Amino acid sequence: MRTVIKMFLPVLAFVFLTGFDEGRVVIRVNDEPIPMSVLYQRVRSQSGENVDKAATQRAVDSLIANHIITQEAKVQGIPDITEEQFRAAFPPSAMTLPNLSDRAFQEDWIAAAMRARLVQKLMPSLPVSQKELLARFEEFRPSLQSEQADIRWIVVANQEDADRVVARLKAGEDFGVVAKETTLIENVTAEQARVAATVAAEKIHPELSKVIFAASSKAGMLLPPVKVEKNVPFYGPKGYYIVEIARMIRKGETTLEEWRPLIESTIRQEKAEKKVDALIPQRRKQAKIWIEKNLASIVLDAREEEKKKIMEAVQAPADKLVHQAEPEPAAKEGAK
Question: Distance between CA atoms of 145 and 258, rounded to whole angstroms?
């Protein structure tokens, strides 16, 4: 079984290896060859100028892990990543960025995508008990539902006007009619005033939030007028706010059934990720892996050769310029 990792964009190259066979196989993972050029490029990509034994080992481990993942994906019947899928993962403007042309980056991205597909394939087969669901639901309940209230409000200029509005509403007058006749909010119709708006405790003016979300507040209540010293964006000007609560949802006030699909999927994904994380080291132990002897020394020699070639490439134009700048020999005396 052969897994071929395709490169989707032109791969950046280094000045490389006269005297070395770039295609020389230095690692095999279940008979899949990894040539010297691929190893060396990864060493340089991961460790930059710090080419040493540790850098070589990190590169070897990364390459083997990527091959193990892609091989396992093949065994599980997971299709290859296509060039279209790779390109679709990044905005068009990113296609010219250097790291996308880096072979190590592309290989790591492909391996990560294959790992994600392995996780997705395993998820449906993993059971989730009611006990696990309930425990996770209770753990995250506060974050699943924030405090919210559906409210209607009227804003007036002073306490006396506020008391008159409260008296009219308690007497049973229509909220929309009273709002249209009394509120300082401009151009409000009776129909608009009757519609309750949803507000969150942390996103409304603190003076209003403190009263609306008080422990004693509940749906159907007409709250005492609240004096607000500044304009409240999206709600109204400064003044006295008369608020009626149409609905109240307390923090964490939700049910497991509302969140069951999400919680179940989350638990399954976590289990699948753990299973894959345990499977890859197991597959590595089972794999037939061959690594060239003295590989770190071979890589160090390659680095020295690369530096030598770079210096020659830099020095050649300089030597040429010096040669061109040398004055021609003076003519000998008596020459005709």
Answer: 11
